[in-house]
Design a protein that fits this description.
The protein has 370 residues and is of the alpha/beta class. It folds into two domains: 172 residues, FAD/NAD(P)-binding domain (3-Layer(bba) Sandwich); 150 residues, 2-Layer Sandwich (D-Amino Acid Oxidase, Chain A, domain 2), CATH 3.30.9. The protein contains ten helices and 20 strands. Strands 4, 5, 6, 7, 13, 14, 15, 16, 17 and 18 form a ten-stranded mixed sheet that branches. A six-stranded mixed sheet has the order 8-3-2-12-20-19, sandwiched between helices. It has a four-stranded mixed sheet with strand order 1-11-10-9, with no helix packed on it. A hairpin with a 2-residue loop joins strand 15 and strand 16. The protein starts with a strand and ends in a 6-residue tail after the last helix. 51% of the residues are buried.
Length: 370
Amino acid sequence: MERADFLIIGGGVAGLSAGAALASHGKVVVLEAEQALGHHSSGRSATFSHYGIGNAVVRALTMQSRAYFLDAEGGTLARRHPALFVANEEMRPALASLAEDMARYTDTLEEADEARMRELFPPLRFGGEAVVAGIAHPDGLRLDSDAILQNYARSIRAGGGQVLNAQRVIAVRPEWTVETDGGQGWSAPILINAAGAWADQVAALAGVPSLGLKPLRRTIIVVDPPSGAVARGWAFVKTAVDDFYILPEGARLAASPVDEIESDPCDAQPEDYDIALAAWKVERYTTLSVARIAHRWAGLRTFAADRTPVAGFDTAAPGFFWLAGQGGFGLQTAPAMAEAAAALVTGATWPKALAESGVAVDHLAPARLR
């Protein structure tokens, strides 16, 4: 039985970022069930940070996380990339409401006419049920998910901690000992449940009541741009309501129908209907013709009932800390969530920047979900 000060179940961005924030406070051990870090969600993200997703708490966490990405040496974690939020005629009110919400967190929004939208994403389709209005945000961030995960893992190791792959947890006993399917065991006074779609299952192993977290499957396809077009600099485009997004993926374009299909925790795979729906929406909102699909994948995005992340000790289980429900915004909020988690775990003062941006302890507390 090996000892740690902080034992973290889950090697996605939630667990790794928290581990990096705690590495200076004691020995951190991260247990990841799969062979690769971030296998199920973090590594299957659209990797774009923007204010067009989530509620006020999520947007505030996004705002507070930007400096971490931008200040990384050599721009290795993120680069500035424009975003464009569009609406058809029916979505106009939603676009206006979205712009009002986003303006609380950035002062670089601009109304985009058709010429500007064509400049940002040349294949957009205009008129009728396609695009009639847009809001541009030139200060979005394209994130490098693998670089972010590895950066956090390096920080943990540099602090004397361990990040261990292929360690699937099969038993959890209070105060707190963990056994994996390889027969290894660890113990720590604080257990951090950052298991993503499996977080409620980990709680069940520990005898802790669930929070009712819901894993939702999302599908992404990759298609070719028009012959001869250089798509790398085209904007990230998302509809004002959750109906469609598209963005550069290397020399190609990745698109999603923004589907949310309830799923058991699993290695999510795209289904034929959702792939076809994604292709249909590409042709609905753009002039692209989907002659072939170069690649496809699906990932699980896990939400609490109020779609706000969870961070806090379980009041019924001393030392059991929830860090879950980061949905589709886990990458872009991870630095701020890690700061919040570290303060709660160590009993430090709540971060001033989070308080000033409107994020309170109670917003994240697991007790709100019971």
